[in-house]
Amino acid sequence: MPDAIFAHPRLAALYDPLDPDRGDLLPYLGMAREFAARRVLDIGCGTGVFALLLAERGVEVTAVDPAAASLAVARAKPGADRVRWIDGDATRLPPLRVDLATMTANVAQAIVGPDQWADTLRGARAALRPGGRLVFETRVPARRVWERWTRERTHRVSQLPGVGPVESWVAVTAVDGPVVSFRWHYVFGADGATLTSDSTLRFRERDEVEADLAAAGFSVDEVRDAPDRPGGEWVFVARRSAPAA
């Protein structure tokens, strides 16, 4: 099931206003140009920010997400008719032959279960043309970024047009090896409503990701640094190669 921040209509409507700076997507736009991608699959598209940026540039985009509330936000945006929106995930896609498949932000890490992760990689491979690329990011476990996910470090009050003040913060609820769970809290000043959203991310080591890609029929072209989080993330650029094991 998708996290409440993506699946609850009231929270999905807040996602973009609470995080308006999406500079993290610029490297992905750059790679779409670099690889001359004319057809892109955006896996875990959320509220459609990246898909719409691509579509504005004339790219044919298929965007998939399991959270209906987030897709509703995406479909209501200007230019949404230029994107093919799919309610689901990469394991159940129609026949595609895209040049590039992407998982931006926390999408790859949010696919926690090993079987689901393997199925997602195989689904991405099936959607790619021969030689097409899969690009995604994952945080470096050694940086232990979750230790900064506390109320003291993350608490803020945001004034949102048409909504009013929204108080928010995050706190870790469990750490089990590479799996980290945390809870976002949202308090709406207009009516006092309080909503929470529980999330879990898997922090994979680089060699683990490379092995998973190889097993799914990819070869790793390179591993880049994330410009917005230097030293904190690996950006994998993998190419569809041999048949999946």
Automatic annotation (TrEMBL):
Keyword Transferase listed? The answer is: yes
Q: Where is the Methyltransferase domain?
A: 40-132
Known InterPro entries for this protein?
A: Methyltransf_25, SAM-dependent_MTases_sf
Q: Which organism was this protein described from?
A: Streptomyces bohaiensis
Query: Is Methyltransferase given among the entry's keywords?
Result: yes
GO terms, biological process: methylation
- One MF annotation (Gene Ontology) recorded for this entry: methyltransferase activity
**Family annotation (CDD domains):** AdoMet_MTases
**Name of the protein:** Class I SAM-dependent methyltransferase
Annotated Pfam families? Methyltransf_25
What keywords are annotated for this sequence in UniProt? Methyltransferase, S-adenosyl-L-methionine, Transferase
